[in-house]
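This section describes the prediction task in plain terms. A model, or a person checking by hand, is given the sequence of a single protein chain and must write out its three-dimensional structure as a string of tokens. No templates, partner chains or ligands are provided. The sample shown here is typical of the held-out split.
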Amino acid sequence: MTNIKIITDSSVGLTDAEIKENNINIIPLSVMIDDTIYVEGESITNDEFETKMESLKTLPKTSQPPIGTFVETFDKIGEDGSQILSLHMTDQISGTVHTAEQAAQMSQSDVTVIDTRSTDRGMAFQVLAAAKLANAGSSMADIITKIAEIRENSKLYMAVMTLDNMVKGGRISRLTGVLSSVLNMKIILEMIDGELKIKNKGRGMKTVNKFVSELVEELKTTPNVKSVGISHAGNEKKALEVRDLLQTAVPTIDILVRQTAPIIATHGGPGAFAVMFYAEKA
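The expected answer:
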């Protein structure tokens, strides 16, 4: 039986324990802060990035891994004859998945590349399932079928607390109807087919609180919820508050709260938080 190994990028919302226990290989992205390049998870942690970002006047620049890094990793991991399944964040946020696709054509290994159409913990749902199935000896076809099912039954919502980073990054023009000059504007985004689109917008925290209340009701009425995660950009207090509210809807699920990766924090901006969950088909 051919062994299958799992590769993903550092935007994935996995814990260190999950990575180690499931034999998941991580290819790191990079971020440039004041002309200094840091490698995610190696030369800068998520917490350290948040501390640095708070005092920056210019937006950090994020970059995908070089194609050579992918080719080298694919060749090394697959040199024993293993197949490789490489899962990456939506191409609406980063070109990482396309670099992986190009590298797969150049590699001597048998590599399948998947755009998860998600990121952070939403992507982690798929990566974890793939790794567990691979470790149990499932076929590539069965793994791809399962992660497609998870993808179709996952939700990702993000609450953006300040529009500063979106304005600096030139992304605000894509968000129809949002005026960056409006004081204290909050927006709620939903991931739809890999793209973050506006769900709600309004002034002040009442917009965010209303969104959380609606999310509690959505979880209560969604059957077979299997996993829920909350990621934040330097806003642990709010993330924990949201967790406690969501926990009333899914009391038997351990909701993971974690600091998000630099690439997501850069786009979401200080204080942003995201809620992700998936449910299995009945």
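For orientation: The mean pLDDT is 87.
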